[in-house]
């Protein structure tokens, strides 16, 4: 049954990708080591509809195109902006320290869904967020900035909705990321069946239980995270996303490790402080530890 589910998910993702007809860059500014490259534009066409993506990149001071630098995809939360990482955290400092290129895309209101449905009212772009990241964003930057092309040197990190996105994409595409970090994310849609954001993608749970329980359900997809290094964290006073979301995923991964042996590598930080909430102050405080984690887990 598990194998059948994985096959169905992969087929769905491939069918979305097949509709993409063209991708062109709207920005050709060369990178400067030690500097942010802001508002890089990606234009694409999908099923006769044009779309436009934007991303900020940071190139560490030791960046050299010929090295195919280690790369970290960094995802913000719902309705946040990629520049929030630059303004609110020391992530560039640690990218310099560890020699990692950062890709911070503008993802607006996506939940990093793998597909749209007839009931989907939140279509943030012509194609689902997960498809955009995997089929357009990453290939574009690998081609134009000679970033790492192998799994072992590529990671994904997100906060809030971006935390969901990081774990979801890592589980749907285990061949793409060697390490993933999710902070303050939601991973069990069935336990949040009245959440308006989830309803805006998947419709109402009572009418569409199968998709809620199977499609993009990270708890159901967790076995695919085997051999992916994981960092999970959640503020103990989070009133936006319940800490139980991270606890449920961490507990499941621990059970899988006990049942199936080695292979599930998960670092769990319940909270830096019992007072930690759902905000940039908490997320910024964890950035040094998260970046050290990626330095250790991504191959040099």
Question: Describe it for me?
Answer:
This protein has 300 residues and is an alpha/beta fold. The protein has a single domain, classed as Rossmann fold. Helix content is 37%, strand content 21%. It has helices at residues 2-17, 83-88, 91-98, 129-145, 161-172, 196-202, 209-214, 218-221, 244-260, 280-297, and strands at 20-25, 35-46, 49-59, 70-75, 100-105, 154-159, 179-183, 229-233, 265-269. The chain has a 9-stranded mixed sheet, sandwiched between helices. Helix 9 links the parallel strand 8 and strand 9 (265-269). The longest helix is centred in the last third of the chain and has 18 residues, at 280-297. It is globular, with a radius of gyration of 18 Å. The relative contact order is 0.14.
Count of discrete domains: 1
- CATH class type: Alpha Beta
| Shape verdict | globular
DSSP helix count?
10
As a percent range, the share of strand residues is: 15-25%
Largest sheet geometry: 9 strands, mixed
CATH superfamily grouping: Alpha/Beta hydrolase fold, catalytic domain
| pLDDT < 50 runs, ≥5 residues | 1-19
Number of strands: 9
Protein structure class: alpha/beta
Average of the residue pLDDT scores: 89
Instruction: Write down the CATH topology.
Output: Rossmann fold
């Amino acid at each position: 049954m598990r194998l059948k589910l994985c096959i169905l998910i992969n087929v769905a993702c491939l069918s979305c990708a097949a509709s993409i007809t063209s991708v062109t860059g709207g920005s050709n500014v060369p990178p400067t080591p030690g500097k942010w490259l802001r508002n890089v534009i990606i234009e694409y066409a999908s099923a006769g509809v044009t779309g436009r993506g934007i991303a900020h990149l940071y190139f560490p001071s030791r960046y050299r195109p010929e090295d195919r630098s280690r790369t970290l995809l960094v995802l913000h939360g719902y309705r946040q902006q990629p520049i929030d990482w630059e303004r609110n955290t020391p992530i560039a400092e640690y990218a310099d320290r560890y020699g990692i290129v950062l890709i911070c895309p503008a993802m607006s209101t996506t939940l990093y869904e793998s597909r749209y449905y007839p009931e989907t009212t939140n279509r943030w772009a012509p194609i689902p967020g997960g498809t955009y990241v995997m089929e357009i964003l990453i290939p574009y930057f690998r081609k134009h900035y000679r970033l790492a092309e192998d799994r072992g040197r590529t990671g994904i990190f997100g906060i809030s909705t971006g935390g969901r996105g990081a774990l979801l994409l890592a589980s749907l595409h285990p061949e793409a990321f060697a390490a993933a970090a999710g902070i303050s994310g939601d991973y069990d849609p069935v336990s949040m069946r009245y959440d308006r954001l989830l309803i805006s993608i998947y419709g109402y749970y009572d009418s569409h239980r199968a998709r809620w329980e199977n499609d993009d359900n990270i708890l159901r997809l967790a076995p695919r995270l085997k051999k992916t290094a994981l960092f999970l964290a959640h503020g103990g006073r989070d009133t936006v996303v319940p800490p139980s979301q991270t606890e449920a995923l961490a507990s499941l991964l621990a059970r899988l490790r006990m049942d199936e042996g080695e292979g599930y590598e998960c670092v769990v930080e319940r909270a830096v402080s019992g007072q930690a909430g759902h905000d940039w102050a908490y997320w910024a405080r964890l950035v040094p530890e998260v970046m050290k984690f990626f330095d250790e887990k991504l191959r040099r």
